[in-house]
Amino acid sequence: MTVQQIRLFGDPVLRTPAAEVVDFDRELRNLVRDLWDTMRDEGGAGLAAPQLGVGLRVFTYACDGAEGHLVNPVWTALDEEVQVGPEGCLSIPGFSWDCQRLRNVVARGFNMHGEPIEVEGSDLLARCIQHETDHLDGVLFLDRLDDETRKRAMGEIRQAEWFDGAVPTLKQSPHPLFGAR
After folding, report:
1. Average pLDDT over residues 49-76
2. What is the pLDDT of residue 8?
3. Cα 121 to chain center, whole Å?
4. What is the pLDDT of residues 111-148, one digit of tens each?
5. What pLDDT shows up at residue 169?
6. What is 12-158's CATH superfamily?
7. Is residue 131 annotated as involved in ligand binding?
8. 132 an active-site residue?
9. For 140-161, how does the pLDDT look when each residue is reduced to its tens digit (9 = 90+)?
């Protein structure tokens, strides 16, 4: 088991867009294994490589009875139906707030061997796909909260024992869904 330390809110790697994977090699397979082991150890629904300090477009997921990993993922909406519900993040431990996401998405990418894969998700799996892909773009779910909820969230985070006083910044998502929110 290779459980790694998860980077916490305030770490610059979480705000840096990740690079496309070009080498589907042993190093990538080790990264996927580390993501799996860490995600399972922490009890998360998903974990992106930047959360381990690795700037590559890779994430793992295990929710709604589906589990796997995606390399260089790109997702699209299956329809315009939205969901609002609690969302948390292993990089912001101990908190969750209601966040708006699309209800139904499909993600396309590759597995760790470079073979194309497609994952269709609704509800929690759709939320996870969007959340983890945001991580790969340097976007945190805090950026998607409405102004009032974000203000409350930041106040709560500032009181957390793990918070190091980093100045929060908002990031514009490259996905057309909701912009910064």
Report:
1. 97
2. 95
3. 15
4. 999 999 999 999 999 999 999 999 999 999 999 999 99
5. 55
6. Peptide deformylase (3.90.45.10)
7. yes
8. yes
9. 999 999 999 999 999 999 999 9
Domain extents for the chain?
12-158
The annotation status of 135 as a binding-site residue, yes or no, is: yes
Catalytic pick from 20, 132, 148, 156? 132
Is the pLDDT at 168 greater than 70, yes or no? no
Per-residue HEC secondary structure of the chain comes to: CCCCCCCCCCCHHHHCCCECCCCCCHHHHHHHHHHHHHHHHHCCCEEEHHHHCCCECEEEEEECCEEEEEEEEEEEECCCCEEEEEEEECCEEEEEEEEEEECEEEEEEECCCCCEEEEEEEHHHHHHHHHHHHHHCCCCHHHHCCHHHHHHHHHHHHCCCCCCCCCCCCCCCCCCCCCCC
Q: How many CA atoms lie within 13 A of 21 on its CB side?
A: 29
Share of the chain above pLDDT 90, in %: 88
Torsion sign across C-alpha atoms 179, 146, 66, 122: negative
Angstrom distance (rounded) from CA 10 to CA 113: 33
